[in-house]
Amino acid sequence: MRGCVENKRAVRTGRLLLAAGLSLLVSGCAMMAPSPPPDQSNICEIFREQPKWYDYARASEQAWGTPIATQLAFIQQESSFQSHVRPPRKRYLGFIPGPRPSSARGYAQALDPVWGEYRDDAGSTLARRSHMKYATDFIGWYNERTHRQTGISLHNPEHLYLAYHEGAGGYQRGTWRSKPAVQRVASQVAARTSRYQSQLSSCQAEFQCRRFYQFGPFCGT
User: Fold this and answer.
1) Helices in 65-179 by DSSP H: which ranges?
2) Residue 87: other Cβ atoms inside 10 A
3) 24-58: pLDDT as tens digits
4) Is the dihedral of CA 90, 33, 201, 123 positive or negative?
């Protein structure tokens, strides 16, 4: 009998240690992720702080067609450049934690089902929502799919965002028309895209030509 009790305690202890280890691993990954840029109103300052983000966004633009400024405007709206952010849990009686309202997570706030589709179709088993490389690529992939399904131009950030929020089917059914808050956010995303694009025009050469082999006719390639 005593042996059974000790075995149960050992199993319980093992589970607690495993949970603690996973918690430390997750928090460690979050600590290693870049801090959100302090000035999110200026895309030049964002890329100066994180020049690799420019590379990721440019690669996504070349692969899928969504402009760099639109990608960054989406990410700023969705996560404020927080790599591990998730929707807050519901609270019962004001303090008891409940379930989260959705499975959205990461820079692009991608949901589990559509993230799975992305990984199967365009990404890889190593793709992580907490990595900017995959967040920008996901947004490009998603918008290209939206363009094929709905005909929305890749240069129409307002309606691309409406479809990003509602899904292509919801967009085509017009579910966004009865959601003034969603329409306001989409308008804000479009305004931010325009501002980012104007700023990027003045500083893009910095990020295209920062490596030793990027000069003359090879600059920006």
Assistant:
1) 68-79, 112-121, 132-150, 157-173
2) 13
3) 444 444 457 789 999 999 999 999 999 999 999 99
4) negative
